[in-house]
């Protein structure tokens, strides 16, 4: 009896989460996949016609948006690493007993709505705003200089909004580095840089790896930053999907675009995992 | 303990004046601020470790032995005093610039590197070329019996193997001294005993000065050339294992090293080089080793449990007292008797089970304890 319970228990434990995923994730996903191959419009209704051209047409028309999204995602992810790593390092090794205070401050913006934060970022970057205004009046920047409605504004907004997703996994990885192992490196003639490069960095790479996945995916498919900060010339694929679905009611096209994006992201992540996610990389970094 | 430190005294009572000692601590003190109070982890220590010596820092946890070792390694700077390595003042020199290596308590192996890369780490940092690195790592792995496991990760090794990797990783650099911080603490008894022999062999083979930190007195006695017994941040006694065991300098040392019987009594007569103590229905004679004691002085003396003989007849010479057996514990190779003397001291006696298969006394029986005066030692008479 006890043995039976032991065998059943794991399944009982995943049952609630499993059901949730089946109903709210798997079913919609299959439904969307089916919609992506339909033809029709809102008035006459949609019909399943196995219309694969939804995919090829989507790539033909919006190829540049896909490229731009992946490009923005890449830059923002790299920028996130550059900003997050030193911050996480400092909190993990230097903040002492104020660690939790700093982590809380890092998460504080998350208590404000994502859209509102992005609009606030727009106010910060606006032509006569608190950043550009003074710089212009001190003649450090030309009068017609602007940041908004540019790719830079979108990428900086994306970086800002998703930074904590990069800091937290890196922080967790650094926090787990055994300080005695670092001492061992010093003991074996490593200077500060060598100890970091050969021991701390490789041991924290799994955190960077997790952070990249957690930022690259949502950043690439984001549409809020591009619509608030980017203006008409810097739209990302997320904006296209949103417009096709909610404005044009082209459900089939929007679904096909979504699946294409998903496939591209999965491909990118797999390639990345193949290249960087293995133990050999950590080993090579330590050598 | 006063707040002001005396001027560092550099005396060298043990070593020959010509030889430069491998490690020397002069008036070393380490203080921490904790909750607004100054805590002395190490109080004004002077010690000298000779070249090629197996030297142990022995003491209970919190006695300052690990802090002392970390100051030698360069992980802590002394609040006062100086550290010399081969005559050179290295106080304030960081760990990576000191020619000593450490074996950490938990090994602290690099988890992301293979055994080979772990051992090669120090050589690579020093820019030793590839062929030489491979040769020296290979030779070192052979000494610690890990040939063929070069590609394994530390997580794929047993505790004893990890221990040997840690040893190899430090020794491959041919340091002037090797510091070992309770390196056998995580191993089970059998493996620990095997590693004790192994460590001693390796030390002889490579001829490097070992400084060994441990709280295990058995380990320190077996392996060391000399032992510094530490307590409460200071050194209680610094001597050979035999001297520390036979002639403990303080009550603390007597209690910490092995099982010791402490007997307190008043001197009733002094003569020759010994003192007589009237003790219950018996008497105790203890050598004074040249120290001056007067009739009426109180002395604390120690007798090791294996030196005491249990008998049924009242002896007529040496030290003897009557006692009652409180407990008999059979230990296989020996039997341990816990007895209470007529004067009220609790005493442990070990009897080897060489010839007598049966217990020589039962619980509750009255017996006579006797020992030769030279086997007892009055604390404080060096």
From TrEMBL, chain A:
InterPro entries: MetI-like, MetI-like_sf. The chain crosses the membrane at residues 12-33, 70-91, 103-124, 151-174, 195-217, 251-273. It is a multi-pass membrane protein. It holds the Pfam family BPD_transp_1. Keywords: Cell membrane, Membrane, Transmembrane, Transmembrane helix, Transport. It is found in: Cell membrane. Its main location: membrane. Residues 66-270 form the ABC transmembrane type-1 domain. Belongs to the binding-protein-dependent transport system permease family. CysTW subfamily. PANTHER family: INNER MEMBRANE ABC TRANSPORTER PERMEASE PROTEIN YDCU-RELATED (PTHR42929:SF1), INNER MEMBRANE ABC TRANSPORTER PERMEASE PROTEIN YDCU-RELATED-RELATED (PTHR42929). This is ABC transporter permease.
From TrEMBL, chain B:
GO terms for molecular function: ATP binding. Residues 23-257 form the ABC transporter domain. Pfam families: ABC_tran, TOBE_2. It is an enzyme of class 7 (translocase). The keyword Cell membrane applies. It catalyses: ATP + H2O + polyamine-[polyamine-binding protein]Side 1 = ADP + phosphate + polyamineSide 2 + [polyamine-binding protein]Side 1. Gene3D superfamilies: 2.40.50.100, P-loop containing nucleotide triphosphate hydrolases. Keywords: ATP-binding, Cell membrane, Membrane, Nucleotide-binding, Translocase, Transport. Its EC number is 7.6.2.11. Transmembrane segments: none annotated. Part of the ABC transporter complex PotABCD involved in spermidine/putrescine import. Responsible for energy coupling to the transport system. The complex is composed of two ATP-binding proteins (PotA), two transmembrane proteins (PotB and PotC) and a solute-binding protein (PotD). Belongs to the ABC transporter superfamily. Spermidine/putrescine importer (TC 3.A.1.11.1) family. This is Spermidine/putrescine import ATP-binding protein PotA. The gene is potA.
């Amino acid at each position: 009896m006890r043995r039976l319970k032991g065998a059943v228990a794991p399944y009982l434990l995943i049952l609630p989460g499993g059901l949730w995923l089946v109903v709210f994730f798997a079913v919609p996903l299959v439904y969307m996949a089916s919609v992506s191959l339909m033809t029709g419009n809102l008035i006459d209704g949609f019909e399943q016609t196995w219309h694969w051209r939804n995919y090829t047409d989507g790539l033909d028309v919006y190829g540049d948006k896909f490229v731009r999204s992946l490009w923005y995602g890449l830059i923002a992810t790299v920028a996130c690493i550059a900003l997050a790593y030193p911050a996480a390092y400092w909190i993990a090794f230097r903040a002492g007993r104020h660690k939790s205070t700093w982590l809380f401050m890092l998460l504080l913006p998350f208590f404000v709505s994502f859209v509102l934060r992005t609009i606030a970022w727009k106010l910060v970057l606006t032509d006569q705003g608190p950043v550009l205004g003074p710089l212009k009046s001190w003649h450090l920047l030309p009068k017609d200089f602007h940041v908004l409605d540019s790719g830079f504004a979108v990428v900086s907004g994306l970086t800002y909004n998703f930074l904590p997703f990069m800091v937290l996994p890196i922080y967790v990885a650094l926090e787990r580095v055994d300080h005695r192992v670092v001492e061992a490196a010093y003991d074996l003639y490593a200077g500060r840089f060598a100890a970091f490069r050969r021991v701390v960095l490789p041991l924290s790479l799994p955190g960077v790896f997790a952070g990249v996945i957690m930022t690259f995916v949502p950043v690439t498919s984001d549409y809020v930053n591009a619509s608030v900060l980017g203006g008409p010339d810097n739209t990302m694929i997320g904006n296209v999907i949103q417009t096709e679905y909610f404005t044009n009611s082209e459900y089939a096209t929007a679904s096909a675009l979504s699946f294409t994006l998903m496939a591209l992201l999965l491909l990118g992540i797999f390639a990345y995992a193949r290249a960087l996610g293995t133990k050999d990389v950590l080993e090579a970094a330590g050598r | 303990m006063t707040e002001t430190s005396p001027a560092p005294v550099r005396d060298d009572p043990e070593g020959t004046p010509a030889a430069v000692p491998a490690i020397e601590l002069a008036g070393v003190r380490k203080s921490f601020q904790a909750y607004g109070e100054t805590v002395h982890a190490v109080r004004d220590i002077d010690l000298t470790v000779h070249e090629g010596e197996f030297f142990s820092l022995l003491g209970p946890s919190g006695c300052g032995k690990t802090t002392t070792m970390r100051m030698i390694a360069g992980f802590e700077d002394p609040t006062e005093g100086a550290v010399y390595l081969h005559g050179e003042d290295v106080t304030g020199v960081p760990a990576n610039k000191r020619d000593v290596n450490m074996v950490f308590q938990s090994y602290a192996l690099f988890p992301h590197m293979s055994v080979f890369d772990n051992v090669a780490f120090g050589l690579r940092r020093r820019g030793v070329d590839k062929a030489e690195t491979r040769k020296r790592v290979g030779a070192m792995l052979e000494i610690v019996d890990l040939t063929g496991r070069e590609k394994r990760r530390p997580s794929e090794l047993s505790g004893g193997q990890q221990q040997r990797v840690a040893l190899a990783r430090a020794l491959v650099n041919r340091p002037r001294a090797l510091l070992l911080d309770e390196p056998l603490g995580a191993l089970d008894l059998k493996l620990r005993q095997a590693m004790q022999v192994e460590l001693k062999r390796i030390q002889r083979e490579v001829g490097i000065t070992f400084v060994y930190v441990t709280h295990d007195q058995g380990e320190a006695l077996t392996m060391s050339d000399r032992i510094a017994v530490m307590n409460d941040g200071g050194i209680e006694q610094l001597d050979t294992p035999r001297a520390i065991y036979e002639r403990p300098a303080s009550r603390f040392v007597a209690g910490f090293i092995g099982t010791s019987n402490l007997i307190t009594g008043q001197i009733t007569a002094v003569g020759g080089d010994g003192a007589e103590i009237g003790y219950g229905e018996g008497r105790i004679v203890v050598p004074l080793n040249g120290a001056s004691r007067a009739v009426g002085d109180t002395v604390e003396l120690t007798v090791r449990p294996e030196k005491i003989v249990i008998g049924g007849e009242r002896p007529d010479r040496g030290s003897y007292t009557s006692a009652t057996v409180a407990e008999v514990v059979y230990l296989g190779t020996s039997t341990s008797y816990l007895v209470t003397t007529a004067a009220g001291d609790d005493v442990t006696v070990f009897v080897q089970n060489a010839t007598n298969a049966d217990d020589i006394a039962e619980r509750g029986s009255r017996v006579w304890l006797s020992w030769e005066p030279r086997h007892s030692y009055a604390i404080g008479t060096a």
